[in-house]
Hints:
The chain has 305 residues and is an alpha/beta fold.
Amino acid sequence: MITLGLDPHPASHTVMALDESGVSQGHLTVPNTEEGLMRLHEFSARLEPRRWAVEGAGNHFISMFVGQLLSRGDRVFSISPSLTSQYRARRGRKKNDIIDAGNVARALLANPQLPELNVVEQQRTLQELTRTQRRLSEQLKATRGAQQELASESPVREVLQRLIETLASEVKKLEQRIREMVRKIMPSLLEIPGVGPVVAGVLLAETAGPKRFATADHFASYCGAAPVERGSGQNSRVQVNPGGNRRLNWALHIVAMVRLRTDGGRSRAFLDNVKSSGKTQRAALRVLKTYIARELFRAMRNAIA
């Protein structure tokens, strides 16, 4: 099996092919154009059997190529940048696109349990909607903060107020479109405590189907919510997983925060019980997020059963 690691960028893409032992079988850098994508297909055609490890496969500047791969039956795995960075750190300070492409492939070689990507058009649209909504929401929050720091007589306040009104209006429109899509795809998600339309949209957009994951624990790990063991000799400890899909991790955090405020104290009691075993507030919150990830996975699996 040849693993093709792809490091995509808005202007160019770099691929490196590794065999099962991690030995390079060649690399190629092409411009992000139709001709460049064709050269990637030609490069991979001679490598059989093959699979693709694509860093950030949901990014808009690589989505066309990923769609082409899936349509022709190639196996595609999305590798999060945080996972790639772990292999970069292990292999020294040197960095370029060829090295990064190799590290993307090595991330898949070292983590064969990663789920395959199965992108559908609705998922890609939801990704664009939810990611844009998040960016505009952050801009809206920053603009409001900037306005509050100004003196009341500042002429800039009026400019920022117009920007705030525009951003707020566009964010509301995006949220309405996300709600409509969620209701068409999996309306039962909106019945889960703490899950609003934006969180539900993120779950559907970033998961690409719960059948990709063998168990709830695999899904929790993909969300970066499952703890990882770090040990050597007689020393062993469990720490937070720095990898995983950070957008899904954000969604779990939102659900946890909402439940801590609104579920009648059940989540707070769970948190206090975990803390009584010696865990810190942050560690106890991570445990709560792990349980929420498992619950959401089961709910999504049941919805398509």
